[in-house]
Amino acid sequence: MASRVDLDGKPIAAMTICMIGAGGFIGSHLCEKLLFETPHIVLAVDVYNDKIAHLLESSENKKQPWDGRIQFHRLNIKNDSRLEGLIKMSDLVINLAAICTPADYNTRPLDTIYSNFIDALPVVKYCTENKKRLIHFSTCEVYGKTIGSFLPKDHPLRQDPAFFVLKEDESPCIFGSIDKQRWSYACAKQLIERLVYAEGAENGLEFSIVRPYNWIGPRMDFIPGIDGEGVPRVLACFSDNLLRGEPLKLVDGGESQRTFIYIKDAIEAVLLMIENPKRANGHIFNVGNPNNEVTVRQLAEMMAKIYGKVSGEKMLDVPTIDVTAQEFYGEGYDDSDKRIPDMTIINKQLGWNPKTSLWDLLESTLTYQHKTYSQAMKTVMAKPTAN
Ligand code: NAD
Ligand code: UDP
């Protein structure tokens, strides 16, 4: 492997990275990137490893070029004394572990708060005490609702970026009332951000905080009834509907807006943070693609069209149906109205920009979904249902 240099032209030494939550969607892509393109060693921590099983397989007959550079440690960070030892062995800790599906925020608020705040506390503590650098995964949801959302619908200031673009060092965090338990996640993430930041200010912790904006791609969540149960995030919900040949469900009319970024673009940003500590330490980074904004309704229509193209299946005459948030998520759901990342800080510190258009990223992701799940879905749907 050619020797790697950082953004300032200095050689990058191989490091040992303790990646907590490595078996999830983002973790699996980050593991691939580190193993395929860098010399770094990954101590992968998670309770599951299905999404990284292809990286862990090795045998006499099937040697992999990255053999010896990844170890899987099956442990729950809630209650496992091995965690501190793994952090001590590492140069860098990346914490991805969290409950992060909106369907859980209002229905399992305690688990959500414990997972995103309490369970992350020992990770931060061990990093401070052992002087280990930490990259902590937060969320764009810490911004909550935009200032503009409080203006009347046709107010001209709604068009002014000052009322909706989200800036790491300026925008306030605006959450709904306590009975809107949707915000349990954002609030827990905000508090852990404040704690990490305070450890930096008072005790010298070297940290970066990542705020992902709807990173999507292969291996995100699960398809209910095939490789998981429950209500996943929107990409998997809509993929499930498409695989079943049923209309895509638009919560409250699908008026909320999101910017979607291809996981592979986002992982490039994380690798830059990993390999450029001097530029990344002490910063909070928005990581998203401001050019890929759509309403959820537009996302649904685009996915239906692209799925028709990649699967060869006929599109439904009525590809979407409206459902209320109460029906879909239950009591206490609320929504972020619009999420456009300001890119000034990540541009200045790391010179990073996203590349992939929404159409292209959906095409490659839906090709993957079709290839991975369509056969299994046919089998599931052919089974008689008990009643
Ligand atoms: P994911 O659910 O696919 O991955 C999280 C992983 O953490 C899972 O594999 C899970 O098993 C593991 N985990 C959870 N609790 C654990 C525990 N107690 N011990 C050990 N492992 C545990 O989610 P993801 O999309 O990969 O998200 C990773 C991080 O990024 C999360 O912190 C999430 O809040 C944040 N984030 C992601 C997005 C996105 O667009 N994907 C958006 C905003 C924030
Ligand atoms: N959504 C929807 N139908 C679904 C799943 C989600 O209309 O089947 C909406 C949801 O209400 C939200 C958006 O899609 O407005 C994005 O939801 P996701 O679960 O991906 O998470 P979020 O971006 O809110 O964190």
From TrEMBL:
<dbReference type="InterPro" id="IPR001509">
    <property type="entry name" value="Epimerase_deHydtase"/>
</dbReference>
<dbReference type="InterPro" id="IPR045869">
    <property type="entry name" value="Arna-like_SDR_e"/>
</dbReference>
<dbReference type="InterPro" id="IPR036291">
    <property type="entry name" value="NAD(P)-bd_dom_sf"/>
</dbReference>
<keyword id="KW-0520">NAD</keyword>
<dbReference type="InterPro" id="IPR050177">
    <property type="entry name" value="Lipid_A_modif_metabolic_enz"/>
</dbReference>
<feature type="domain" description="NAD-dependent epimerase/dehydratase">
    <location>
        <begin position="17"/>
        <end position="288"/>
    </location>
</feature>
<dbReference type="GO" id="GO:0016831">
    <property type="term" value="F:carboxy-lyase activity"/>
</dbReference>
<protein>
    <submittedName>
        <fullName>UDP-D-apiose/UDP-D-xylose synthase 2</fullName>
    </submittedName>
</protein>
<dbReference type="Pfam" id="PF01370">
    <property type="entry name" value="Epimerase"/>
</dbReference>
